[in-house]
Amino acid sequence: MRSAGKRIGISQPALTKLIRELERELSTTLLVRSTTGVKPTTQGLVLYERALAAERELAQAVDQIRQLDGRMTGSITIGAVPLAVMLLVPETLRTFGRAFPEVQLRVSEELYIAQLIRLRKGEVDIALGPLPADLPLGEFIVEPLMPIAMVVVVRRGNSLARARDLAELGQAPWVYTGMTPESGYARTLYERNGLPPPPAGALVNSTLGLLSIVASGNFVGLLPRQIAEHPLAARFLDIVQVSEGPLMLELVALVRPETNLKPSVRQFLAHLHRAVHHLGAGFPAG
After folding, report:
1. Phi, psi of 205, rounded to the nearest 5 degrees
2. d(CA 120, CA 70)
3. Element containing residue 55 per DSSP (H, E)
4. pLDDT tens string 38-78
5. Which of 101, 119, 152, 164 keeps 20 to 30 A from 57, CA to CA?
6. Where are the beta strands (DSSP E) in 89-219?
7. Cα radius of gyration rounded to whole Å, the chain
8. How many CB atoms lie within 10 A of CB 129?
């Protein structure tokens, strides 16, 4: 447990007694004890997850109360896709950190699917990524930030770079990013243009993994133009100029729709918009 941000110690006998009292009160078994150790039951895992969520909510409440009293302390956890980490996060951290030096910032780079899971659990305060097409209306507060042009890329020198349209790449192995091929951006690009999705030659959960596979093999992938044209990536990749153009997405900030967001979260969102303006209004769409 936590009290005012400090962890309270508890002895092993006291913890064992507490668990047994909980088991009696709930009329269930929370832990299975054997000669090889102790394992939680399904009921025990439910209680553990709920306890973690309650602890996170309590910590959020403590931060919010202190900030409403004018003490800008505590922490913010941000989950961000690589493009946001590369373009927006550094400038945001610079200006926000200068204005609120006592607020600790934690940044985790991950795909938006993982972000949504963590945002729903309350493990991150802000998620930065493309706006999901199937996001339930009203589930999160959505702050639009900037457009993203996802361009088709292949290994530099690959003959596939001469393709003129998506149909010519329809039988090539594509790298999909996400949990399953059904959620990949390659599928979205083809379906938006009335074409059957290409085969999934590889499935990765990171931009670095996509870069590594495309740059070293005969695969096709999709990357934000800003990353594909970055000097570190452009040495190894060619952008395929297909007639259909790039897959257009929108980079947004997502937060849970609490009635009162922590003041520090509101301030961070304001600094995010400032970073977008700093980079220049009107990002190229193609």
Report:
1. -120, 25
2. 28
3. helix 42-68
4. 888 888 787 777 776 666 666 666 666 665 656 667 888 99
5. 101
6. 103-109, 126-130, 141-155, 174-177, 200-204
7. 23
8. 26
Three-state SS for 248?
Answer: strand
**Residue written as tokens 């990536």?**
233
55 token code pair = 């602890």
Q: Is 223 helix (H, G, I), strand (E, B) or coil?
A: strand
State the pairing for strand pair 6-7/2-3.
antiparallel
- For 31, 48, 50, 203, the CA distances from 22, given in Å and listed in that order, are 11, 12, 14, 44
C-alpha 270: how far from chain center: 19
Angle between helices 263-279 and 42-68 (to 10 degrees): 80
- Closest by CA position to 143, among listed 155, 119, 127, 166: 127
Residue partners of 266: CB distance under 8 A and separation at least 6: none
- C-alpha 9: how far from its chain's center? 33
Count of CB atoms situated within 10 Å of the CB of 248: 13
Q: Which two tokens stand for residue 186?
A: 């390659």
**Span 265-284, pLDDT tens digits:** 888 999 999 999 888 644 44
The pTM for the full model equals 0.69
